[in-house]
Write a structure and sequence with these properties.
The chain has 339 residues and is an alpha/beta fold. The protein contains 12 helices and 14 strands. The longest helix is centred in the last third of the chain and has 18 residues, at 321-338. Bound molecules: adenosine-5'-diphosphate (ADP) and magnesium ion (MG).
Length: 339
């Protein structure tokens, strides 16, 4: 990563921290949150969120993972006061979005999915405009600090159209930070972004988080959530179907696969391997599915040599989030089809 991408801490959002109660509430707390979009024209009512409970701890790098249409954008737009909820409550940094509307909006910054940057403004002008929109008085603006924190200081006066894709993304993040929110939300930050830029953005998001910003990231990329987030909520058809620390989520699935390549072609599966649930997946390849907690590997290897075979190669795979995701969403599907 180039030095240009090195994040620097921003000044603390003073008015927000000063009013904190003793026991700090979570960064985000949603309780019984539902959203039904009204029927319009051809489409009927849409239950985009159904009774969602979610707690996002302060300081976390939290992933909201779900397929397209799951309700991710609806959820974050409610948090940011951009979409009206149908029922339930939402608290941002301890502020109720209805009762303490001003403070709750001040506590969150949203980076939308689309790059919507006016190409004929400079980063400096865009940030000043945005600060104006958020009612930040000129004397309290930190435009220059934000630009250098995001590695855009030397582009402050360049037209946005001359910025690279990566710089534009960072400018979008900068725009979300003009009011110094403690919670930064990135809605699908890497959708349609090439691999190199994706890696840069991940590194950058990690840095922002290391510096104390609570980051909520929505994504439909399992890999992204697994790689980046310390906690993950999985959302499908408007319901949160899992929420856990990433490693605990992964530990839920204990299944492993072992593929052995043996030294000669097999016409049939040796009978003593049947008990181990072996499957022949190639002339010389055998697949074993097992639970790691049963630790059967030594037994399998003994049985293979007992069948007069030598192992030439072996590969093993652990379950990843994709398996968990498929399991959970399949479960949810079955549940709804049973009703
Ligand atoms: P995601 O961000 O996870 O892709 P969204 O929150 O955008 O999901 O959408 C959730 C569901 O609500 C989808 O079925 C979508 O079509 C529907 N939806 C989103 N916005 C509106 C709207 N303004 N009017 C009606 N339906 C909507
Ligand atoms: Mg979305």
């Amino acid at each position: 990563m180039s030095s240009v991408m090195t994040a620097q801490p921003l000044p603390e959002p003073a008015d927000i921290h000063e009013t904190l109660p003793e026991a700090a509430p979570p960064a985000v707390a949603l309780r019984g949150l539902s959203k039904t979009y009204k029927a319009s024209g051809k489409t009927g009512e849409k239950h985009a969120l159904i009774d969602v409970d979610l707690t996002i701890p302060r300081g976390s790098l939290f992933g909201l993972l779900g397929p397209n249409g799951a309700g991710k954008s609806t959820m974050i737009n409610i948090m940011a006061g951009l979409v009206n909820k149908t029922s339930g409550t939402a608290n941002i940094w301890g502020y109720d979005i209805d009762r303490d509307q001003r403070q709750s909006r001040a506590a969150i910054g949203v980076v939308p999915q689309e790059l919507n940057i006016d190409p004929f403004f400079t980063p400096f002008e865009l940030l000043e405009l945005q600060a104006g929109l958020f009612g930040v008085p000129p004397a309290e603006r930190i435009t220059t600090e934000i630009l250098s924190a995001l590695g855009l200081a030397d582009k402050a006066r360049a037209y946005a159209r001359t910025l690279s894709g990566g710089m534009r993304r960072r400018l979008m993040v900068a725009k979300a930070m003009v009011h110094r929110p403690p919670v930064l939300v990135l809605d699908e930050p890497t959708a349609g972004v090439d691999i190199e830029l994706r890696q840069q953005l991940w590194a950058y998001v990690r840095e922002l988080n290391d510096l104390g910003t609570t980051v909520l990231l929505t994504t439909h990329y399992l890999e992204e959530a697994e790689e980046l987030c310390d906690e993950i909520a999985i959302i499908n058809h408007g319901r949160v179907i899992a929420c856990d620390r990433t490693e605990d989520l992964l530990a839920r699935i204990d299944s492993k696969e072992l593929i052995l390549t043996v030294d000669r072609d097999l016409a049939v599966l040796p009978p003593n391997l049947v008990a181990f649930g072996a499957e022949q997946v190639g002339a010389r390849r055998l697949l074993f599915r097992y639970h790691a907690s049963d630790s059967p590997v030594q037994g399998i290897l003994d049985a293979v040599s007992g069948a007069g075979l030598q192992v030439c190669d072996m590969t093993s795979e652990e379950a990843d989030l994709e398996d968990i995701f498929l399991q959970l969403t399949r479960g949810a599907h079955n549940e709804s089809s049973r009703r």
